[in-house]
Amino acid sequence: EAFRFMSQARHVGKIVLTVPVGLDPAGTVLITGGTGTLGALVAGHVVVEHGVRSVVLTSRRGLAGEGAAALVAELEALGASVSVVACDVSDRKALAGVLGGVPAGAPLTAVVHAAGVLDDGLVGSLSGERLARVVRPKVDAAVHLHELTRGMDLSAFVLFSSAAATLGESGQGNYAAANTFLDALAEVRRAEGLPATSLAWGFWEQRSGMTAHLTDVDMQRMRRSGVVPLTSELGLRLFDEGLSSAWPVLAPIKLDTAALRTA
User: Fold this and answer.
1) 165, 119, 123, 161: which is closest to 142 by C-alpha?
2) Residue 88, by phi and psi: left (phi above 0), alpha (psi -120 to 50) or beta?
3) Which of 62, 42, 48 is nearest to 110 (CA)?
4) pLDDT for residue 212 is more than 60
5) What span, in angstroms and rounded, lies between the C-alpha atoms of 247 and 32?
6) Please, which residues have CB within 8 angstroms of residue 27's CB and are 6 or more apart in sequence?
7) Residue 59 half-sphere exposure, CB side, CA atoms within 13 Å?
8) How far apart are CA 242 and CA 251, in angstroms?
9) Confidence of residue 224 (pLDDT cuts 50, 70, 90)
10) If DSSP states are collapsed to H, E and C, what string results for the chain?
11) CA distances from 21 to 24, 25, 106, 136, 220 (A)
12) Is the dihedral of CA 88, 93, 96, 101 positive or negative?
């Protein structure tokens, strides 16, 4: 594509071509929401499958969060250097402090923004406060990460979006709006020549803090609608495919086409 651009004399001056690379084992990967269910799965995956030796995990409670200490012990046993930081990622100053604390010997090379909060309700019941509660950890944090890492040579900038933004979901107007912003941000970054992948996830089989409230009845309803939960193994494989994809926005959703036809 670059050579074709040059052969057609569409450029002025020099052309600078950045060749995409995988996750750099010598660099640091920052994962927001890093001690949550999906964040922890991704942390283990980048250490085991990608050989990353330095990870920084942010969460609202830091090491005091449930399972955080066990996660650190597990990752360190695999040979990784792990830092868990209590940080409100919607606070730009606090997030800048986390980025400033990344070890100089292992510069930041990848970001995975997996933080999120739910506050479900029909549109008529959504106050400005309820909207902001969901938007801040998704949108504000993503904007801060985008601006604060802009001058860094990142190999990956992954945003965890949701199928709610793509397909819609009852009672999740605020959540859908926040994730739609993430999808658009990925488009903008790619247009500016920056790495970005927004993954509009379907439902994961392994329950997280945001899905623990779902009952078996809820699960059956989802299956009838044609959405099948993703296993952790499949989800992480799709994560890797997203990293190498030319598309800025992808929807990793497992569908039961027979159920869709019936519906």
Assistant:
1) 161
2) beta
3) 42
4) no
5) 22
6) 52, 54, 106, 107, 108, 109, 110, 155
7) 22
8) 9
9) low
10) CHHHHHHCCCCCCCCCCCCCCCCCCCCEEEEECCCCHHHHHHHHHHHHCCCCCEEEEEECCHHHCCCHHHHHHHHHHCCCEEEEEECCCCCHHHHHHHHHCCCCCCCEEEEEECCCCCCCECHHHCCHHHHHHHHHHHHHHHHHHHHHCCCCCCCEEEEEEEHHHHHCCCCEHHHHHHHHHHHHHHHHHHHCCCCCEEEEECCECCCCCCCCCCCHHHHHHHHHCCEECECHHHHHHHHHHHHCCCCCEECCCEECHHHHHHC
11) 8, 11, 16, 31, 41
12) negative
Tokens of 93: 């100053």
pTM equals 0.85
Give the Cα separation of 23 and 21 in Å (integer).
7
The amino acid present at 133, given as its one-letter code, is: R
52 against 263, higher pLDDT? 52
Q: What is the pLDDT of residues 114-171, one digit of tens each?
A: 998 877 777 887 778 888 888 899 999 999 999 999 999 899 999 999 998 888 777 7
